[in-house]
Amino acid sequence: MSKEKTLKDKILDFVFITSKQPVLLKDLLITNRQFNEGMDVESARLGFKLKLTKAYILYTSIVLGILVPISFLTHKELAKIDSHISIIGAVVITATIFIGFNYFKDWLVKTISEDMIKKSWAIHFPFFPYDEYSSKIEKIYDRAVKDEISKKDLEKYILDNLAD
Predict the structure, then answer these.
(1) Coil, strand or helix at 6
(2) Any bridge partners for residue 18, and if so which?
(3) 3-class secondary structure, 48
(4) Max Cα separation, the chain?
(5) How far apart are CA 164 and CA 160, in angstroms?
(6) pLDDT for 113 beyond 50
(7) Which DSSP letter does residue 50 get?
(8) What angle do the packed helices 7-15 and 52-80 form, to 10 degrees?
């Protein structure tokens, strides 16, 4: 039974390199906390790397796919207006494009981070759905850090505290 990939999955596969190694429990717990707090997630902990050149190629393709048709539709009207207004418009559009890439890159990283966390979650906590237990396990992990629970006893500590 083959599962068809969505456009989002195809984009992520094109733009990222992902490790075949499973994410370690402690790395999952750390990145889950960072993700829930809205912080930047350490990509190495989750096993992915952004291929920046491919991200630029994809972003440029999207921008050109939007701007070229708009340029064809508005060219005659823009040719009639004052050149100073056209120059200012070009500067604003250029700035918007460059700023937009940072938002695009942040969206890519956030999306792959969430996907990798959820996939790893399914491996480490198969009976505890991510959406329901993410914050609960984060709180238990914070207590484990304060209680200085060793790495080898961490999973047992979390599961015991989930049962309470």
Answers:
(1) coil
(2) 48
(3) strand
(4) 73
(5) 7
(6) yes
(7) E
(8) 110
Question: Cα separation of 66 and 111, whole Å?
Answer: 23
Contact at 8 Å (CB) between 35 and 135? no
Show the tokens assigned to 21. 């190694």
Residue in the block written with tokens 């340029």: 71
Q: 33: which 2 tokens?
A: 């906390």
**Joined tokens for residue 154:** 């961490």
Q: Which tens digit of pLDDT belongs to each residue from 65-101? A: 999 999 999 888 888 888 888 889 899 999 999 999 9
Nearest to 27 by CA among 41, 13, 12: 41
C-alpha torsion sign, points 62, 68, 69, 74: positive
Separation CA 44–CA 27 (nearest Å): 9
The DSSP H or E segment spanning 74 is helix 52-80
In the chain, alpha helices (H): 7-15, 25-36, 43-46, 52-80, 83-124, 130-146, 154-163
Cβ contact 109:41 at 8 Å: yes
Tokens, residue 155: 């999973």
Token couple for 80 = 């009639």
